[in-house]
Structures are given as structure tokens and as C-alpha cells.
Amino acid sequence: MISLLTHIESTPLRVCFCIIFLALIFLFISPMFLEVINLGNIVGTIVSILGFLIFTFNNRFTIIIEKIKENSVGKVTVSIVSILIILCMLLAVIISVAMVYKMNNYPSEPSNIIVLGCKVKGTQPSLMLKRRLDTAYEYLIENPETIAIVSGGQGSDEQISEAQCMKEYLVNKGISESRVIMEDKSTSTYENFKYSKQILEELSLPTDSITVVTDGYHQLRASMIAKKLDFKTYSISANTSWYLVPTYFVREWFGVTYQYVFG
Predict the structure, then answer these.
(1) Residue 41 and residue 28 in contact, taking contact as beta carbons nearer than 8 Å
(2) Could you give the percent of the chain with pLDDT greater than 70?
(3) With 0-12 CB in 10 A as exposed, 13-18 as middle and 19+ as buried, what is 90?
(4) Other C-beta atoms within 10 Å of 158: how many?
(5) What are phi and psi of 169, to 5 degrees?
(6) Which residue, among 119, 146, 145, 147, has the nearest Cα to 132 in the 3D structure?
(7) What Rg do the C-alpha atoms of the chain give, in angstroms?
């Protein structure tokens, strides 16, 4: 992989890669101005800057790699790094495909839903949470026999719980209060499902399967967590702002891997 990068002699191709990485730098940095800073845009920014520098100064990069490969230790090191890069790229592709599949795993029959919480600003939903709620609202209107569990506790910087904010939003839009059940104790996705399952059991509602309303990028990891509690999940995915997609996709690569290994 590294050797391949050092032998790109076509100037138009190098310019094309430079433009691509420059655009990625912008996409990963821009969410930081909205106070969205996580492993996704930190790693994405670093990798994009490295990619930009490699293709901008390709000749110098080639010379450095060739010097490293002058001895056997250097050759082995370059080979190992190349293999790791390829494996990471393959893993990213596999996880991305699984994420896309899961975000489109729509229920074939009407199903009760769990709406996963997100940031509350004061007493109002953030843009991301509002989109989840609008998605849930449309589904509840189309399927009047279903209920929604709105799940999310109160953070230290939130005036009310995410669950209360979500319930008020849906009720104000016209959903019957009896169809919106609050789960306001959770502080993690695992607890979202744990406490929601307890509510379903108390109401004598099915707990074998549930439909999750969250952002598309989050559906795969959410389903992996839900599976630990014997939930079979379907997905109704809210739209994510285009400029946030790269950041959250990359973050999920790490999150899904961690959940698979340690979850």
C-alpha cells in the first residue's frame, strides 16, 4: 500500500487526490465549529491531512520510504504498516456496508418504537433530536395502533430530561399522550434498551422485537447492544446533516469494533 502511494507519477491524479483530501479535511473540521468533537472527526482530520501531505509532497515521501526500505528491518516495517492499512480499510468497508444495511432495515409490519435520545438545548430538542422525533411522528401517524417509548435521561447541561423533551414535542404535534411513554433514567444506549424493556414488560407488550428510531449511522451499533437484551430490532432512520455524516460514520467504525470485541 505504501509503495503504491509512492509511485503515483501522474500529476492530474495526484492533484485529484489532493482535492479529495482537502475536501475531507474541511468536512471533518467543520463540525468542530458546531462543538461536535469526537473520535470520528479527530481521526478523520488527521488521516485526511496526512493523505493531503503525501500526495502534495509525493516525491519527498517516496524518497523517505525508499530510505527506510534500504535495510531488512525497514522493509518489514513498511510491509507491516501496509498490511495494517489494508486491513483497516477492509474493516471500514465491511462495517460501512453493514451500517447501510441496518439503517434500511425497515419493519414489514407495524411495530412499537423506541426513540433514542439526543442532546436537548434548554427545553428544546437539538436539530438531530428534532429529526428523530419528526421521523417517529410520521411513523406514529401512519401506524395509529403503535406506541413510542422516548428514551433518554437528563444530562448535567440539560434543563429537562431528553425523554420529557421528546414527549412534549410529540404531544404538541398531536400524538396522544397515552401513546408516548417516557423512559428518563438512561445514560447510555445499553440503558436505553434495558429500561425500555422493563417498561414493555410492565405494560405486557411484546419484547421480542422493537423498531428503533435514531440516526442511520447509529442503527448498527444500537442493534448490537439491543441484541444483548434479546431484542430483535428494526430500523426507522432519521436523516443526518450531510456535513456530519463523515464524522459520525468514522466514529461508528470505532464504536462498532469496540462493541464487537468488548460488548
Answers:
(1) yes
(2) 96
(3) exposed
(4) 18
(5) -65, -50
(6) 119
(7) 23
Rounded Cα distance, 161 and 187, in Å: 10
Q: Identify the CA nearest to 118 among candidates 154, 84, 87.
A: 154
Alpha carbon distance 79, 85 (integer Å):
10
How far apart (Å, rounded) are the C-alpha atoms in residues 183 and 120?
15
119 φ, ψ (degrees, to nearest 5): -55, 135
Distance CA 66, CA 231 (A): 53
CA gap 259, 228 in Å, rounded = 11
SS3 sequence of the chain: CHHHHCCCCCHHHHHHHHHHHHHHHHHHHHHHHHCCCCHHHHHHHHHHHHHHHHHHCHHHHHHHHHHHCCCHHHHHHHHHHHHHHHHHHHHHHHHHHHHHHHHCCCCCCCCCEEEECCCEECCEECHHHHHHHHHHHHHHHHCCCCCEEEECCCCCCCCCCHHHHHHHHHHHCCCCHHHEEEECCCCCHHHHHHHHHHHHHHCCCCCCEEEEEEEHHHHHHHHHHHHCCCCEEEEEEECCCHHHHHHHHHHHHHHHHHHHHHC
Mind listing the pLDDT tens digit for each residue in 23-48?
999 999 999 999 999 999 999 999 99
Strands 120-121 and 124-125: antiparallel
Calpha distance 155→118 (Å, rounded): 10
Take residue 73 and report the three cell numbers written for it: 528491518
Site of grid cell 412499537: 112
Separation CA 257–CA 263 (nearest Å) = 9
Confidence of residue 7 (pLDDT cuts 50, 70, 90): low
